[in-house]
Amino acid sequence: MLEIPITYLKIKDELKKKKKIMRWSVMKWDEIGKNIAKEIESSILKYFGKKEKSYVVGKSPSGDDTEIFDKISEDIALKFLKPLNVNIVSEEIGIIDNGSEWTVVIDPVDGSFNFINGIPFFAFCFGVYKNNKPYYGLTYEFITKSFYEAYYKKGSYLNGEKIKVKEFNPNDITISYYPNNKTDINKLRDKVKRVRIFGAFGLEMCYVAKGSLDAVLDIRPKVRAVDIASSYIICKEAGALITDENGKELKFKLNATDRLNIIVANSKEMLNMILETLQK
Ligand SMILES: Nc1ncnc2c1ncn2[C@@H]1O[C@H](CO)[C@@H](O)[C@H]1OP(=O)(O)O
Ligand SMILES: [Mg+2]
Ligand SMILES: [Mg+2]
């Protein structure tokens, strides 16, 4: 597993206080991601379900409102990442291009609506790409303290335990979906046993990865690379198929603005069932 040299921020902060020189240390991407997740957690949970405490501080490059807790979370991530001189793609600020081979793609809070409305389903998404190829993904579900993570080609894990997608059983299908107004979603609804729509796409993808959901799709389309970059790696490593609305292998650019049609399914059978219902 590759390691990258970075400034160990906590040490750096302490040394700075003592006016001593900065010391260098080595940290792995999973440690960096988890440290960011934990610091975000300790800073924003006081806003959970407290609509009256939050307020809009601006607009993201994709045109959505940025709430104060989104900004606080992103600032924490940036504090850790900026000293690394990697490229950063994050929901609220967009792209910081440092010409690095590394790109870190972040959604500081996926499921912002849930978060501020007291619905306990939201996550921190941290995807690392090397030369635009998947390298490491971490999606952290705050309320259940679940770290979903995967290094490319090394399998997918939930709090250290290996996870994989559920086996397809046509009589026992549970899916989540975000259709558009042209979709006759009842065609799909009628073929599955249960529908559960949770409101945080990146995290719902992890529910496919761990076998709680058979599939999740967004053909509104609303989600962007920031919402899916970390869970994309986790889902792939757990055995999921990830395609566009036509069943073609999903390709996406690492930016904060493109909206993506995406289907994540546990099997070819599940994917075909979805694709059939999307045909006019
Ligand atoms: N304009 C938009 N409206 C609704 N959901 C959006 C959206 N842009 C992105 N999404 C994402 O779609 C899912 C639910 O609708 C969430 O993962 C949400 O991510 P967000 O909470 O980070 O914005
Ligand atoms: Mg999001
Ligand atoms: Mg977000």
Structural description of this entry:
By secondary structure, this protein is an alpha+beta fold. The model is unreliable at 5-9 and 20-24 (pLDDT under 50). The termini are far apart. It is globular, with a radius of gyration of 19 Å. α2 packs antiparallel against α3 (68-81). The protein has helices spanning 9-17, 29-44, 68-81, 112-116, 185-189, 201-209, 225-237, 268-278, and strands at residues 4-7, 24-27, 56-59, 65-67, 87-90, 94-96, 102-110, 123-130, 133-141, 146-151, 156-158, 161-163, 174-178, 194-195, 215-218, 241-243, 262-265. The strands form four sheets. The protein has an eight-stranded mixed beta sheet with strand order 6-5-7-8-9-10-11-12, with helices on both faces. The chain has a five-stranded mixed beta sheet with strand order 14-13-15-17-16, sandwiched between helices. The site of one magnesium ion has 6 residues, from β7. It comes from Methanocaldococcus lauensis. This is fructose-bisphosphatase.
